[in-house]
Write a sequence for this structure.
């Protein structure tokens, strides 16, 4: 198991952090918080530009963040990675077939390279339905897929917006959206027949799994006249559900205006419910079984796909913030919605998703001695630390990796 080891860095001259744009949101908040630590955060839009900057600012570079595919291509490209480049034995799986001069060799140290990943390197039993990265990457690494990592130095080099076990963690989006100075919460009076709005979070393909007329009637009998809405660019084909258009910039405000956020299945782990929660809107999510007896690895229970949608939210934030129902059960759904509506507006921002959480998470990532960990691993392995063979092979098989266009 990869263990975190925090030490006082030996030297701190490097104060620039580059981001090759991948799955990272909330860049402004991250850049602002890094400024508190006296770091300059530079987002760039392609790896080629990033490499030029790393060479130009070599003595000042602290870390380089890349998305999954950019990072995997970098690690097998002698023009990108520095001392830990290992050439493939298969010419068809080589980013560059030409000899690279010493001057042209990659400037990125493996231990400075961080992988940004929305879904993280999770065991297959904790993967999102339809988005199993262990299958995508064909993971067969030594020691089993339970401990696999996109980065050869381990999961602590993978940055995700969720606090996955052994991962680095930076809440990409929540801190600004949850700033209480940017919104107000309006409590609506409770009276029979009150009009309420439920915003559906999920793929429209799941709409037919529920009897919306029955759910509406059950809620009406208990005193609520509910309008079901779903973000959509066109009609839903369901007379009980109203399609609405949304502006990404005003989406947090919409989450605060509605009365309940309802998950009907997929996406498995969105950031939306946390924003809704800090705006005072309770969330209702489906499950396929109870938490007891899941048999998951320690720390991964909340990511069991049997939760169907955002199990970790319900596990970490139970009533009155999170409610659950058995997937496809109309009566349970109506009861969960009723309880959520009765709970009213209770703004709650978990510590980790507020400004302090962003500060603490970045402090951990910036101050961890990755170089010391790297040197220990390199000594233990007796040489360069290359990309896992299965990740390399599947990147080429799926045509995610391509030949260097600069040849």
């Amino acid at each position: 198991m990869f263990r975190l080891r925090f030490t006082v860095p030996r030297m701190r001259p490097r104060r620039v952090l580059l981001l090759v744009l991948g799955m990272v949101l909330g860049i402004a908040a991250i850049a602002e918080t890094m400024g508190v630590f006296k770091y300059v955060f530079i987002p760039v839009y392609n790896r080629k530009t990033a490499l030029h900057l790393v060479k130009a600012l070599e003595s000042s570079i602290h870390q380089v963040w890349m998305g999954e595919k950019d990072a995997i291509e970098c690690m097998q490209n002698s023009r990108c990675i520095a001392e830990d480049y290992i050439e493939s034995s298969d010419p068809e799986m080589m980013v560059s077939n030409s000899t690279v001069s010493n001057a042209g060799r990659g400037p990125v140290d493996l231990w400075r390279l961080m992988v940004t990943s929305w879904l993280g390197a999770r065991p297959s039993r904790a993967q999102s339905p339809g988005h199993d990265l262990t299958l995508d990457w064909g993971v067969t690494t030594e020691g089993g897929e339970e401990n696999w990592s996109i980065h050869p130095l381990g999961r602590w080099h993978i940055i995700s917006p969720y606090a996955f076990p052994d991962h680095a963690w930076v809440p990409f989006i929540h801190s600004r959206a949850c700033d209480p100075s940017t919104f107000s919460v309006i409590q609506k009076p409770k009276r029979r027949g009150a009009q309420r709005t439920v915003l559906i979070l999920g793929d429209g393909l799941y709409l037919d799994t529920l009897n919306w007329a029955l759910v509406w009637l059950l809620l009406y009998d208990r005193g609520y006249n509910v309008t079901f809405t779903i973000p959509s660019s066109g009609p839903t084909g369901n007379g009980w559900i109203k399609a609405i258009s949304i502006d990404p910039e005003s989406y947090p405000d919409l989450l605060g205006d509605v009365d309940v956020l309802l998950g009907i299945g997929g996406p498995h782990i969105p950031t939306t419910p946390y924003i809704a929660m800090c705006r005072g809107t309770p969330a209702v999510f489906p499950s396929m079984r109870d938490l007891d007896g899941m048999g998951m690895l320690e720390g991964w229970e909340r990511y069991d796909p049997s939760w169907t949608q955002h199990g970790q939210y319900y596990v970490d934030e139970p009533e009155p913030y999170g409610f659950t129902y058995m997937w496809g059960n109309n009566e349970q759904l109506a009861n969960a919605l009723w309880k959520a509506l009765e709970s009213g507006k209770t703004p709650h921002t978990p510590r980790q998703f507020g400004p302090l959480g962003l500060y603490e998470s970045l402090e951990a990532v910036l101050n961890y001695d990755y170089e010391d960990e790297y040197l220990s691993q390199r000594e233990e392995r007796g040489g360069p630390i290359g990309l896992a063979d299965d990740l390399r092979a599947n990147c080429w098989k799926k045509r995610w990796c391509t030949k260097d266009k600069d040849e």
Remarks:
- The radius of gyration is 24 Å.
- The longest strand covers residues 194-201.
